């Protein structure tokens, strides 16, 4: 029997250590964020448009920059994350920026135990579903937290990217596209600061697109669209090339880097 409690505990400890490092990294641009720069990227901004006056639940929010960026745009926001250090910093930023977002520390799968409110929008982005062993309870929770007519939107790294092992220099094809078995990785540094002394210990799972789509349909959502894109807004994979639009692509790219999905609760 798999020890999911230990997997989540290990991941929480790693993410707690990452928070301070990420807050100081160039990638998260925290000082620019405090001065008014949005952390939101082109895909999610175009997908969700005007959020003023809408309620929004942000799943796996790290230390809350996206949550607070939506709040700056007039949304009534709640953010959820596994890391207590992340939630602690999110609350500090919320107070400093004089916003009114709320933050809850819990496993994302337990969100409905901590939040009973229903939302116009549930949002999650970039490097989130790989931390979850099973997407069915995740999708069920999303449906529970949406109002009728509400929108679920996710933008995420394409599952093909997670078939590779990036720990030793050149990426090596190693994992199944949709792998049931847990994947354990231990490496120095983080994606936001590879030279950091932190040792990241992480348990993760690969989920193919059909698993994502079918979990959401089974939970009662109607899929509005599924898009795949070659360009990533983040330079977090080896040897990416910056495009004229300020995004990142692979040299000789043969598969997408990003997918986005929008769904409605009918």
TrEMBL record:
Gene3D superfamilies: Vaccinia Virus protein VP39 (3.40.50.150). The keyword Iron does not apply. The keyword Transferase applies. This is Methyltransferase domain-containing protein. InterPro entries: Methyltransf_11, SAM-dependent_MTases_sf. It holds the Pfam family Methyltransf_11. Residues 58-153 form the Methyltransferase type domain. One of its GO terms (molecular function) is methyltransferase activity. It comes from the Bacteria. CDD domains: AdoMet_MTases. GO terms for biological process: methylation. Keywords: Methyltransferase, Transferase.
């Amino acid at each position: 029997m798999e020890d999911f409690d230990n997997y989540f505990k290990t991941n929480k400890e790693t993410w707690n250590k990452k928070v301070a490092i990420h807050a100081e990294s160039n990638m998260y641009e925290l000082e620019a964020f405090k001065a008014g720069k949005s952390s939101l990227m082109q895909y999610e901004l175009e997908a969700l448009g005007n959020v003023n006056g809408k309620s929004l639940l942000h799943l796996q929010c790290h230390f809350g920059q996206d949550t607070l960026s939506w709040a700056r745009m007039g949304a009534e926001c709640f953010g959820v994350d596994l890391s207590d250090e992340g939630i602690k910093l999110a609350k500090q930023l919320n107070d400093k920026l004089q916003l009114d977002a709320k933050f809850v520390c819990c496993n994302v799968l337990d969100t409905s135990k901590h939040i009973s409110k229903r939302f116009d929008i549930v949002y999650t982005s970039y490097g989130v579903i790989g931390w979850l062993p099973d997407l069915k309870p995740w999708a069920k929770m999303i449906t529970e937290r949406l109002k009728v007519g509400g929108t679920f939107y996710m933008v995420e790294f394409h599952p093909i990217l997670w078939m590779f092992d990036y720990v030793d220099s050149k990426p090596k094809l190693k994992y199944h596209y949709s792998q049931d078995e847990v994947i354990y990785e231990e490496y120095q540094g983080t994606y936001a600061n590879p030279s950091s002394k932190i040792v990241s210990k992480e348990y993760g799972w690969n989920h193919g697109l059909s698993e994502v789509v079918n979990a959401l349909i089974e939970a009662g959502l109607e899929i509005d669209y599924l898009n795949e894109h070659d360009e990533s807004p983040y330079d977090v994979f080896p040897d990416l090339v910056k495009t004229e639009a300020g995004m990142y692509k692979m040299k000789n790219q043969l598969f997408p880097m990003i997918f986005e999905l929008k769904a409605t609760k009918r």
